[in-house]
Amino acid sequence: MNTRIIGFDLARAYAIFGMFIVNFNTAFGSHTNHNGISGFLNLFNGNSSTVFVMLAGMGVSLMTNRNDYTLEERKNIKSIITKRSWFLFVLGVVFYLWWPADILHFYGGYMHIALLLIFFPKKYFLYAAAAAIIIFHVLLAMVPYDTGWNFETLMYNDFWTLKGFLRNTFYNGWNSIFPWIAFFLLGMYLGRLDWKDNKTPKRTLLIGIAGYLITFVIQTYATSITQDKDLVFYLTADYLPPFVPFMVGTASFGLILISIFIFIGNKVGETKIAKILASTGQMTLTHYIAHLVVGLLFLSIITGKTLGYDLLKETPTNPITILTFAITYFFLSCVFSYLWTKKFKNGPLEMIMRKISDRQKSSS
Predict the structure, then answer these.
(1) How far is residue 30 from each of residues 62, 219, 231, 267, 311, measured CA to CA in Å?
(2) DSSP readout, 230-249?
(3) What gap in Å lies between CA 150 and CA 22, rounded to an integer?
(4) CB 159 within 8 A of CB 100
(5) What are 7-16's pLDDT values in tens digits?
(6) 363 domain residue, yes or no
(7) Fewest Cβ atoms closer than 10 Å to its Cβ: which of 101, 118, 149, 294?
(8) What range defines the domain where residue 175 resides?
(9) Is residue 362 part of a domain?
(10) Helix 244-268 with 6-28: angle, nearest 10 deg
(11) Helix, strand, coil percent content, the chain, rounded in steps of 5
(12) Residue 364, domain member (yes or no)
């Protein structure tokens, strides 16, 4: 059995912190101010979600990182992943009633589609990732990207219709299956690599730096490269729509981050602070739901603003308040995680998911 690599959990802890900043800022902050602290908060947009999705793909891949599974073992693993995918999908759709930028139901979609490739050689994960990006651009040529959206309020108008739900899920939702599953598949590829070999994080780091720098230069000098407004928009678009430059830039950032945390984990993995952060990273599902319920409610009380997407129409909260609250909430989440893992192996929601998904059928 493979020992757990603490660097992955540290990367998850970072992604959780980034997710806190992104979602607290989404509900209470400014999305047009890219200066000062507000600009710093907006830097987390896209990157935290990307790292989350990549690490989720790695987690699925690490579950199947052997070459000698029996047919029965493969069936059991597929059954577990299928049940987890449906658990996340249903939980996410229900949670959408509270948080319209939910990512969980998309996770369920990524996992379910990934089952088709789960026992294939790792190179096919990259082929499928490229295909997902191509499919997105084909859909882009067929359906205007803003279909269904009200970008003034960031609400999706026809999500609860069959047509709107399918469009949002597969094409133009916050983290739609196409092209976002490419990050998940890239994570699956990374999960197949030998991270105990020091060459792996070094090579991954260099590839990430190269990809990030190339994208940064292209986006920074886009208006110098071309005067075509549509092409400039394509090169510089951030998150919505997720064009190729965004995909490459954020994926590269993910490679850099994961590699760095592998190095950090190798150096300080046995320290108390690393173990506390790692315990937080192992409870991503619990913290995702909790910060969007408990966190937003407390921040609403502190700011005196009505909770909900109508906040996007109000005066943005001071970015220092949002950042301070995110740091404080993350600290408290770490304390909770540490105390919880003293008695339990998995987080509260992780326990429920595993109880549902890992139950084996008795053989007749």
Answers:
(1) 38, 22, 26, 38, 10
(2) HHHHHHH--SSS--HHHHHH
(3) 20
(4) yes
(5) 999 999 999 9
(6) no
(7) 294
(8) 6-357
(9) no
(10) 130
(11) 70, 0, 30
(12) no
